[in-house]
């Protein structure tokens, strides 16, 4: 049940998605990954990818144009 | 919202950063809308077309931003994640615009007006097209956006994309400067125009069939790569 953070601030698509994909692969089931992003496009495709993979996802806008995507690895 | 349950079965609790109080942006939105309308009226003095262009430009940018429509993702995501939802959205958009273009062009041909749009926008298929397409494809993935996507993200305030914009303008100017040189390669290149090949109704039918086939292929691709079609 460890929690990991991934800083993708300033990274444009598709870098946040690819980093998330890689990081999720290293995590074990039940771990939580918090991805910080500020690219509006990544705010769409990272959660979409994670949901399609079957993980639990939550998005929070922490500031104007800055989001945290919380992904719980389920499988 | 300092503590939030993220809805897991184990009930993991996470301490959150205290959110900064947000300033309401509604006054800015009202001010901006008023300015847009005022500028539209200003453009309308002496020219009837400019306000229409202005309106379409604003609407296009707004829809692009709200929908997160991304032509780059349409071609990139199938390769990196296998997701084709954006690809299929672009196919639907192409299908709709095909019908629109077809109607406008066919109407102009039927009227035999002096503004015959029959061959407008039909470009030769040659070496410059192939070369440019490959370069554009590489560039847009690195830059994180195609032309319209870059403009939209500059508007959103993503700083990296401003750098992209500088080189986007420089590249466009350079390309325009060398247009005469590239034109030489196109002298013998064929111009393929579907209505000439299949007739007007055949063209829209063939185009429609190709789009439907691509849509099915995209859906199958995602099912294969991600195990879900949605």
From TrEMBL, chain A:
<feature type="domain" description="UPF0033">
    <location>
        <begin position="6"/>
        <end position="30"/>
    </location>
</feature>
<dbReference type="Pfam" id="PF01206">
    <property type="entry name" value="TusA"/>
</dbReference>
<dbReference type="InterPro" id="IPR036868">
    <property type="entry name" value="TusA-like_sf"/>
</dbReference>
<comment type="similarity">
    <text>Belongs to the sulfur carrier protein TusA family.</text>
</comment>
<dbReference type="InterPro" id="IPR001455">
    <property type="entry name" value="TusA-like"/>
</dbReference>
<protein>
    <submittedName>
        <fullName>Response regulator SirA</fullName>
    </submittedName>
</protein>
Automatic annotation (TrEMBL), chain B:
<protein>
    <submittedName>
        <fullName>Transporter</fullName>
    </submittedName>
</protein>
<dbReference type="InterPro" id="IPR007272">
    <property type="entry name" value="Sulf_transp_TsuA/YedE"/>
</dbReference>
<keyword id="KW-0472">Membrane</keyword>
<feature type="transmembrane region" description="Helical">
    <location>
        <begin position="86"/>
        <end position="105"/>
    </location>
</feature>
<feature type="transmembrane region" description="Helical">
    <location>
        <begin position="125"/>
        <end position="146"/>
    </location>
</feature>
<feature type="region of interest" description="Disordered">
    <location>
        <begin position="1"/>
        <end position="21"/>
    </location>
</feature>
<keyword id="KW-0812">Transmembrane</keyword>
<feature type="transmembrane region" description="Helical">
    <location>
        <begin position="26"/>
        <end position="44"/>
    </location>
</feature>
<feature type="compositionally biased region" description="Polar residues">
    <location>
        <begin position="1"/>
        <end position="13"/>
    </location>
</feature>
<dbReference type="Pfam" id="PF04143">
    <property type="entry name" value="Sulf_transp"/>
</dbReference>
<keyword id="KW-1133">Transmembrane helix</keyword>
<feature type="transmembrane region" description="Helical">
    <location>
        <begin position="50"/>
        <end position="65"/>
    </location>
</feature>
<feature type="transmembrane region" description="Helical">
    <location>
        <begin position="197"/>
        <end position="218"/>
    </location>
</feature>
<feature type="transmembrane region" description="Helical">
    <location>
        <begin position="158"/>
        <end position="177"/>
    </location>
</feature>
């Amino acid at each position: 049940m460890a929690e990991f953070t991934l800083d993708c601030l300033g990274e444009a698509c598709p870098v946040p998605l690819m980093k998330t994909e890689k990081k999720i692969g290293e995590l074990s089931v039940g771990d939580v990954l918090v991805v910080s992003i500020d690219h509006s496009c990544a705010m769409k495709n990272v959660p979409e990818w994670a949901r399609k993979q079957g993980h639990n996802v939550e998005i929070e806008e922490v500031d104007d144009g800055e989001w945290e995507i919380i992904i719980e690895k389920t499988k | 919202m300092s503590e939030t349950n993220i809805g897991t079965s184990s009930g993991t609790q996470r301490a959150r950063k205290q959110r900064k109080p947000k300033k309401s942006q509604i006054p800015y939105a009202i001010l901006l809308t008023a300015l847009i309308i005022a500028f539209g009226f200003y453009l309308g003095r002496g020219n009837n077309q400019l306000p229409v262009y202005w309106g379409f430009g604003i609407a296009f940018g707004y829809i692009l931003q709200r929908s997160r429509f991304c032509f780059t993702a349409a071609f990139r995501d199938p390769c990196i994640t296998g997701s084709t939802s954006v690809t299929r959205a672009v196919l639907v958009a192409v299908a709709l615009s095909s019908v629109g273009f077809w109607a406008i062009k066919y109407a102009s041909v039927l009227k035999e007006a002096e503004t015959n749009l029959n061959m407008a926008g039909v470009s030769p298929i040659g070496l410059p097209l192939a070369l440019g397409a490959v370069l554009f494809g590489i560039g847009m993935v690195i830059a994180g956006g195609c032309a319209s996507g870059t403009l939209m993200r500059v508007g959103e305030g993503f700083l990296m994309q401003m750098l992209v914009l500088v080189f986007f303008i420089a590249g466009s100017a350079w390309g325009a400067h060398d247009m005469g040189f590239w034109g030489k390669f196109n002298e013998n290149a064929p111009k393929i125009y579907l209505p000439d090949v299949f007739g007007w109704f055949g063209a829209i039918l063939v185009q429609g069939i190709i789009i439907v086939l691509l849509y099915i292929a995209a859906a199958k691709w995602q099912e294969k790569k991600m195990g879900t079609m949605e």
